[in-house]
Design goal:
It is built from 13 helices and 15 strands. The two termini are 26 Å apart.
């Protein structure tokens, strides 16, 4: 007889999130549609103010997606052809794509195997090498919602005279020493892809900064280089956050702090349920940090066997990510010029993402933990 958890235990997060906010979202969309402002109108203006206040930055600039956010930051900083930008290889490919689209060259660096975030020692070694001489910036990725070791990375970046920027696509609500991710560096990129902690119903992104001049340059670049309509003062792009998505994000932003608390509660339940289990390493909160738990990613040497077991038990697991960027064919030309990444390659072979979102029930968490325990008990000792 099957012991698989009932499928109803595992609800689909973006749909559940819409259902939770349905009445407010529908009302906000009606207001927006009847208002007649559909591009860079009052909803975007209001969301930018509200999101900047949430992050603790002076400015938030709405853009079309998180990849554009990275590109526009670099372009506004005059980082492009002939320049290099350091980024972890263990991240969504969008992190490297945004760098390439700005005309710069991504340079991959190794990660800390405990946090899966950029390793300060690896960054120091890279920047101190001949290869690091053309590096203009470092893009630190708060992967899974885990804040990077910001103070250590900042010390290294400052020593070598390079900018330290943030990729906060998975870190809405994360904090480092009391400051929100997105307010730590000169500028930060956010994604509002539907599965994010703060997700639109479609694509969307934002850039946060407290540098007034940088914010103005980004606003100009995002819309054709216009300072006044139809007059381009630089070569810009079309990367505008949609009024409809801004209206949706304004509704969801009001409940984001509570949803982060619930994500952390689910993560704590997983930690209790998996405590002491041999062969399974759960994520941890670093001292002085608040993990936002966009994803709950465990590590297991027998990852593939565990994944197969959980899938057979009806548990929806995933890989974030099945290959590091330097292992992908599209980036082979960069891989040949990057340092060895042993910790990244080890991490990628062991990671497994368990279900986690604010609406996941205690029963679902228990079912997942029981399935992992049953796998552990079946393994040779």
């Amino acid at each position: 007889m099957s012991t698989s958890p009932a499928p109803s235990l595992f609800t689909h997060f973006p749909i559940e999130d819409y259902r939770h906010h349905e009445a407010e979202i529908d009302a906000a969309l009606r207001t927006m549609l009847h208002g007649g402002h559909y591009i860079l109108g009052p909803e975007v203006d209001a969301f930018e103010r509200e999101f900047a206040a949430f992050i603790g930055a002076r400015h938030a600039i709405g853009v079309a997606n998180g990849t554009d956010a990275i590109e526009l930051i670099l372009r506004a900083l005059d980082i492009g052809p002939g320049d290099r930008v350091v980024v972890p290889s263990h991240t969504a490919v969008a992190s490297a794509s945004g760098i390439s689209r700005a005309g710069a060259e991504p340079v991959f660096v190794d990660v800390d195997p405990l946090t899966c975030t950029m390793c300060p020692e690896a960054l120091e070694a890279l920047l101190a090498s001949d290869f690091g001489q053309e590096v203009k910036a470092v893009l630190a990725v708060h992967i899974y919602g885990q804040p990077v070791a910001w103070s250590a990375l900042k010390s290294v970046a400052d020593k070598h005279g390079v900018l330290l920027l943030e990729d906060c696509a998975q870190a809405h609500g994360a904090t480092f020493e009391g400051n929100k991710a997105g307010a730590l560096g000169l500028a930060a990129a956010f994604s509002f892809y539907p599965t994010k902690n703060l997700g639109a119903i479609g694509d969307g992104g934002a850039i946060t900064t407290s540098d007034d001049a940088l914010a103005e340059r980004i606003r100009v670049i995002r819309q054709y280089g216009w300072k006044e309509r139809y007059i381009s003062h630089c070569e810009g792009v079309n990367s505008r956050l949609d009024e409809m998505q801004a209206a949706i994000l304004r509704v969801k932003l009001r409940t984001l702090p509570a949803q982060i608390r619930q994500r952390r509660a689910v993560a704590a339940a997983y930690a209790r349920g998996l405590a002491g289990l041999p062969g399974v390493d759960a994520p941890v909160d670093q001292p002085g940090c608040t993990h936002a738990y966009h994803l709950y990613v465990i590590r297991c040497a027998a990852r593939d066997a565990l994944m197969k077991h959980l899938q057979e038990q009806g548990v929806p697991v995933a890989l974030h990510y099945p290959a590091a960027i330097h292992q992908q064919p599209g980036y082979a030309h960069i891989t040949a010029r990057s340092p060895a990444l042993p910790q990244t390659e080890m991490v990628v072979s062991r990671i497994l993402t368990l279900p986690l979102h604010p609406y996941l029930s205690p029963e679902a968490v228990t079912a997942v933990c029981q399935a992992i325990h049953s796998f552990a008990q079946s393994q040779p000792r």
